[in-house]
Amino acid sequence: MKTVTEFPRQVVEFPDMGIVMPDGCRLSARVWMPEDAGDDPVPAILEHLPYRKRDGTIFRDQLTHPYFAGHGYASIRVDMRGNGDSEGLMDDEYSEQELQDACDVIAWAASQPWCNGSVGMMGISWGGFNCLQVAAKQPPALKAVISLCSTVDRYADDIHYKGGCLLTENFGWASTMLSYSSRPPDPLIAGDNRWRDLWLTRLENQSFLLPLWLSHQHRDAYWKRGSICEDFSAVKAAVLSIGGWHDGYRNTISHLVTNIQAPVKGIVGPWIHKYPHYAGPKPAIGFLQEALRWWDRWLKGVDTGVEADPDYRAYVMDSVRPSRWHPARPGRWVAEQEWPSPNIKVEAIELIAAGAQPAIVASPQSCGLAGGEYFPFTFGPELPGDQRPDDALSVCFDQPPLAEAIDIVGAPELLIRVSSDRPQANIAVRLCDVHPDGASELISYGVLNLTHRNSHESPEALVPDETVSARVILDQCAYRVPAGHRLRIAVSNAYWPMIWPSPEPVRLDLSAATLRLPLRPLAKGNEVSFQAPEGATPWATGTVRAANSERHVGRDEKTGIVTLSITDDFGAVRDLAHGLANGSIARETWAIHPDDPLSASGKTHWTQTLSRKGWSVRTETSAEMRCDAQNFIVNARIEAYEGGTLVFERDFEETIPRALL
What we know:
There is one protein chain. By secondary structure, the protein is α+β, with helices and mostly antiparallel strands. It contains 11 helices and 33 strands. The chain folds into 3 domains: 2-164 and 219-336, 3-Layer(aba) Sandwich (Rossmann fold); 345-520, Jelly Rolls; 540-657. 15% of the residues lie in helices and 38% in strands. It is globular. The two termini are 49 Å apart.
């Protein structure tokens, strides 16, 4: 990445600009703007997050916000209430209070003498979600958003449920937020006599959100609120949607470009859950330059040509050897002027011949361990590995070797006729690229709780041994399968630890299956290009502890339990400007017996540390989730230490009825 130090306008930074909400709650914002903005007002750009601007997102903030400011914007990074250096309490993700706070910040920014009255909003993940939801509320000053790694549907395409199946990331994310929100404000910002009171109040009122999310197992009003797919027409601001093929949120770009009537464009690269100017696998792109083109057009009225950009720009990845991490993905950029594209043709492939015996799907509960993380976050061993171990536990439909290469661009589907011997059953479908030597690379996958085959709102129990029709939609993808390779469609009724298992072992009889494969004419080379990545001066830090990520799969030969253990040590660094050192370690353990779905369990343990000179704090959070046939049993614990002394402890324990449908 090229570091830019000279900008058209000189930048001034405010590390703690207070923004007081109508109810008196003070939010802390870090603001960069041109030093002459008072004389020559500029548009504002808001990023509104719970992830702590002081030590959480500071790496990416340093690259991004000063860059925007240097090109004539007031770039505002706000800690949401109840997090970081802001006052107040947070009770859930995307709450009405959170979204109203963002609207109030937008109105505040637009009214400032240094602002020209136009505001944009951007973010990745949580910030990508809430900028779309805020856009649907239509605050008058909001003219444009840039949403990365986000969703339009909080139930069907987030970290909670997928295809009506319970994602284990539901538990994992609740554990993560329990840890993230347990940290105190910085005494240098909140004040030596005040930070501790704010911290203890925050801890005393902190929620463990898993029981809330588990209490809404169907697509009810809780999930519909904030899902902009309920009314795409509510979004009037211009939307630039960006995502990555190695991220969990790869479908949103297509959904937005297809459905929003406001100006909208989409870009999908080969990336994990990161901003694309520093993301991996490479190639990264000049995201900040693309963002400026968007902001300049919609916030300044400059003709930058963005309206003539193709609606959908996607990176078609070449076939590679399976690996848990790819530093780079060879491929090419393709462009579709309109999306859905008339260039995409669907080829139907019958997998089971008429009159053939049904394929029996009865996978061990441990099938799925090669699937990787739901949304890879570290530049480490989180991608799907060689699929052969999972293929061996699935029913596989192998196609003949390809005579010519094909480009798959879009969302594959599998149409099935199936019966189950139990009233509830999950099904997982993987589309794989099989190399001539048998190596199996995951292209895309989809899962479906078969009781949700007709509706996520009103599931219907399966009648044992009665055949039903269903459609399994796989995630969007853009992938070239070379000549000589085979396509493999692998079907299982377990996908651990991606989804929580059915309450009983299940046998599925698959009597018909048709793969619908979206194919695009073979791209000859890059059809569109991007500038090389740029960024402002990187965050200046000293390393206290190096980062390290590990994954281990083990089988206890006595008990039969299969365990996946993950340790992500994010390391510890000290800020060379204000002296705050921060570090974190996440540990996860997922265990299951291949024959017993009720043996499933997940455990997490997070450690967070903050220190400066003679001051130090540490939080330890732990959580566990298990089940029986009728209930989910969850518990969690927070411990908070100041200078090595325990100052707060709290336990959570709850049993949530399991919706068998």
